[in-house]
Specification:
The chain is built from 29 helices and 25 strands. The chain is globular and about 100 Å long.
Length: about 850
């Protein structure tokens, strides 16, 4: 059976159908007889004619079924009727060739492109109206189409599994792009169903239009080659996205709670507009209302061939532009923020968007007008779903659509932020993520939008940029007088209008105190980490790559306490070889200029999966093959890494090895034995070998482990999860899995005491180390080293410098006696 969509058996020459309906039914019957469609799809072909004109022009029509009926397409196919004498399709429209297309997902886009080219080549087209050779028709089109998933299917496919969505903010563009990327790596047809609605798993907008919310039960199913493997691959991507979603939500909740007690209050009672807090901080300035400009896109019809070529080029140029923007954003703001623009790039692959643009061009409209209309129609469709998260994604679609539009016609560029004054509070109905990322922060001091939400990409970027912002203030925001003075409170989510002199003085004083504290912390960030009475506590950074080392040192890091080597193995098709790893470790040593470097051996498993390793699916991967367990079972991963590390050690610069997820002495001795074997083989120097304390067993047995290791480093995130039996990916428990829980603190104390008995030092490289209050308690518990995100270093050092070690020991003892994390945090509220 041929997989080609167009075969000689699907071509009928010299046809004389009685009318349009008869022609469609004849073509449909050909597709059904060939096993390409279910017979009911013929009715779908006819229904399409009631809502759309499928006449392309120049004697060609392309009937095709409704989107929601793609489930009736069994295999992509095209049936061709040649009608030499012609057939009236619609009044004034006569056809000689009918191409009935039954396609899955974007299969028909290639066919449309070929047909639009054919329309412009009369010398090649006209002979096809009378040819007696089916091969000439096939040669004229030569489509090359894939076999992706039908959209809108109400039944599951052949192989499926259910999964309950645990993303606190539902399915939005960033995780959905991960789903579609994973789905496209499978040759199978993959779909996601929620209730009676289904989506093509390879189509980002199709996924978003499911409107999935937290707690929704979805069915993931597949049909075709490697169907079961495709389901597993997609589910793995869905689960892997959970950690980032849960963590982001938990951090946001904790920050929101912290801001409630520490905000600015106006001196008087100025008129104010309430909104939703989106990015913390206080901004004083002059209001500039960015009027919602209704973009007027001219309709300049051109040939279909030229329009198709221009749109194809504009899409390619925009993808490159977004890739460059994502790379630049990752370098300056971070990977999460860069993901915003990578997700936007996925929107350009949406089949409905491109198909609608093509249909509008076929109807005689210009390429710019057709693209703009397609974007607006789909954005309005998403907004109409009533889900605030999806409404925010409509803004993303319009943003990326505008980028393509500017590639097509640069003259459509609208006003830039250069028009604003030096202390502008920018008010707008909404703002695109790329506009937010490009704001001139020397001019724009605060941002408020009438629409949007705190999880929208614009809000995320504002927080990363340190730009005070509020969202969802309603239409009244746009009625604020342009040029009026105001105070924008991003902590409280409120815009104060026409504040009094006393209000302004109070706000400026609050800003001054905050700024002075930040400046003081930054000015002293290079000072050694220590308490007020001189107790030394080393402050290090958690980083992934050598190119991050310079920024970490500039932020005040005294070394690297955790180099995560997983990044070397992720987002690639095969594991890095020994030489590639060696070059990375040497580059990190060179960047640190003789400062300490602790490299964590590959930590894969749990929430971190690598597709090409083909690890077995586990019901609870956090309790399965991960960390040291995996390394000992997969020596082909461990030994090249050890060889690279010991080769790097021969350069003579500081280097330590740390093994993750240790739970037994047997694991330690086996790993040390492997290290010694590699060291002797390479004639390399001895290296300090440490272990991560991430499970209660390691903390409870620290005194027994200490003689066999050189140091301990506590991973508080995992230790908290295992100690409290709270999945840190669980939407209702993530915020409760607080590392300041007394049970976790007692495990840390037991680790410190066990290590001290054998003169071993203890560090902490988990999230608690970067929390100034958490760092204070850890110092009081006797921890020797704290390793954290570079952004947290200045504040942690400042906290330690303000207090004597004796005071911190006293606080730690009191924290150990508390009965909850909440009580510990209340205890620490007065710790300035």
């Amino acid at each position: 059976m041929s997989d080609s969509p167009l075969t000689p058996q699907l071509i009928r020459l010299g046809c004389r159908p009685a009318g349009k309906e008869a022609a469609i039914r004849q073509a449909g019957a050909m597709l059904a007889d060939a096993g390409r469609i279910a017979p009911d799809y013929i009715d779908s072909l006819l229904r399409r004619e009631a809502v759309a004109n499928t006449y392309l022009g120049h004697g060609i029509a392309i009937p095709h079924g409704m989107v929601e009926d793609r489930s009736l397409v069994l295999r992509t196919g095209v049936a061709v009727l040649q009608i030499p004498n012609g057939l009236e399709w619609n009044p004034g429209q006569r056809i000689h060739l009918l191409f009935a297309i039954a396609a899955r997902s974007d299969d028909h886009l290639v066919m449309l492109r070929q047909l639009t080219r054919l329309l412009q080549d009369e010398a090649r087209l006209l002979p096809l109206f009378h040819t007696a050779d089916p091969a000439e028709l096939i040669a004229a089109l030569e489509p090359s189409v894939a076999d992706p998933l039908p959209d809108g299917e109400a039944q599951d496919l052949d192989h499926g599994q259910e999964w309950r969505l645990d993303y606190p903010n539902g399915l939005h563009a960033r995780p959905a792009s991960l789903w579609s990327e994973a789905a496209r790596r499978s040759p199978a047809r993959l779909q996601v169903r929620h209730g009676g609605r289904t989506a093509d798993a390879k189509n980002l907008l199709s996924l978003l239009q499911l409107g999935l919310r937290h707690g929704d039960l979805v069915s993931v199913s597949a049909r075709g080659p490697q169907a079961e493997a495709g389901v597993d691959l997609l589910l793995k991507a869905m689960r892997e996205a959970s950690l980032a979603e849960q963590t982001a939500a938990a951090i946001a909740a904790q920050r929101a709670g912290a801001r409630k007690t520490a905000g600015w209050q106006p001196a008087g009672a100025p008129l104010s507009l309430p909104g939703v807090a989106a990015s913390p901080g206080l901004a004083i300035g002059t209001v500039r209302v960015l009027a919602g400009e209704q973009l007027q896109v001219p309709d300049r019809p051109i040939s279909l061939a030229e329009g198709g070529d221009r749109l194809h080029q504009a899409l390619a140029d925009t993808r490159r532009q977004l890739s460059q923007l994502a790379d630049a954003t990752q370098a300056t703001l971070g990977a999460a923020e860069a993901g915003i623009f990578r997700a936007q790039a996925e929107l350009l692959n949406d089949t409905d968007l491109i198909t609608l643009s093509c249909q509008l061009m076929v109807a005689g409209h210009g390429v710019e007008w057709s693209w703009h209309q397609a974007v607006e129609r789909l954005a309005e469709k998403i907004s109409a779903l009533g889900n605030p998260m999806l409404a925010a994604r409509a803004a993303d679609l319009r943003d990326v659509g505008r980028r393509v539009l500017l590639q097509l016609d640069p003259s459509l560029q609208t006003r830039a932020s250069a028009d604003f004054g030096p202390d502008t509070l920018l008010l707008a109905a909404d703002l695109a993520p790329s506009d937010t990322a490009a704001l001139d922060l020397s001019r724009i001091k605060g941002l408020a939008t009438a629409h949007g939400g705190p999880t929208a990409h614009t809000a995320i970027l504002a927080r990363t940029l340190g730009l005070p912002a509020l969202v969802a203030a309603g239409s009244a925001l746009l009625d604020v007088a342009d040029g009026s003075p105001a105070i924008l409170d991003g902590d409280a989510g409120r815009l104060y209008l026409n504040p009094s002199d006393a209000d302004l003085d109070s706000a400026r004083d609050w800003q001054r105190r905050q700024r002075d504290e930040r400046d003081k912390q930054q000015a002293q960030r290079q000072q050694a980490g220590q308490t007020a009475d001189g107790r030394r506590i080393e402050i290090a950074a958690n980083i992934n790559r050598p190119d991050q080392a310079a920024a970490a040192l500039d932020a005040g890091a005294e070394g690297v306490g955790l180099m995560r080597t997983e990044f070397l193995f992720l987002e690639r098709e095969a594991a890095p070889d020994e030489d590639e790893q060696l070059q990375t470790y040497l580059a990190m040593q060179q960047a640190l200029q003789g400062r300490p470097l602790i490299v964590r051996a590959l930590d894969i498993g749990g929430d971190k999966q690598v597709p090409y390793l083909n690890l077995p699916r586990e019901d609870n991967p956090f309790l399965g093959m991960r960390g040291a367990r995996l390394l000992l079972s997969r020596r082909e991963l461990l030994e090249p890494q050890l060889r690279a590390l010991y080769r790097a050690a021969k350069a003579g610069k500081p280097l330590s090895i740390m093994f993750p997820m240790i739970s037994s002495l047997k694991e330690i001795t086996r790993l040390k034995g492997l290290c010694e074997g590699v060291r002797k083989e390479l004639d390399a120097p001895q290296l300090p070998i440490g272990i991560m304390v991430e499970v209660p067993a390691a903390a409870l047995l620290a005194d027994q482990f200490a003689p066999y290791v050189d140091f301990f480093s506590i991973g508080t995130n995992d230790l908290t999860q295992y100690a409290l039996a709270m999945d840190r990916q669980h939407p209702e428990l993530a915020a409760e899995a607080d590392s300041l829980h007394p049970a976790v603190l007692r495990l840390i104390r037991q680790t410190v005491e066990g290590a001290a008995a054998h003169k071993r030092w203890v560090g902490v490289c988990g999230g608690l180390a970067g929390d100034p209050h958490g760092a204070a308690v850890l110092a009081g518990l006797g921890v020797d080293e704290l390793s954290m995100s570079p952004n947290d270093i200045a504040a942690v050092k400042a906290m330690l410098r303000r207090h004597d070690h004796a005071r911190l020991r006293e606080l730690a003892e009191q924290a150990l006696a508390c009965d909850s994390a909440e009580e510990v945090r209340q205890l620490l509220e007065g710790l300035a």
